[in-house]
Amino acid sequence: MNVTSPPRPANAAADARVAQAWTALEAIPDPEIPVVSIRELGILRGIVVDADGMLEVTITPTYSGCPAMSQIAEDIGHALDAAGLAPWRLRTVLAPAWTTDWITPAARERLREFGIAPPGQCGTPAAAQSLRFVPRAARAGAPDRVACPRCGSVHTQEISRFASTACKALYRCLDCREPFDYFKPY
User: Model-level pTM?
Assistant: First the structure.
């Protein structure tokens, strides 16, 4: 008796194309923090094949004015073209807003190893978050404890609210005396 495998669903080709795209885009580094990929940062949100056969890649910037987005878009295009995945389109979505909660645990560790203190978990689903601008002195609760990525001390001090990029703050450790970037949670 000759047994044949069941027919593959009609979307198998689309599924294979999406899998190829994830593989092609997996290792694209963030232009400003090259030790982590855009997927690990949560910038790369999704990949689908639409009804017309167009591969659609969805990205969300870390903040709406992020200057690295044009480079990220260019890198995505090069990777998709090199993998032979045309036709494709890039879609940028701003809602839900990107949150540091989307950074993977592995990326958080690589940030630490690179000398950038990773953000803590915000714990609120991005869709439910609302932005409130409150002066630091008016915030309830204890001040943020930012651990030094070099020695682990929480005896640190914010030097500047903005560091090498707008999404990071500049801190210094009062124990080992080293300055470091802190990836601000939001």
Answer: 0.75
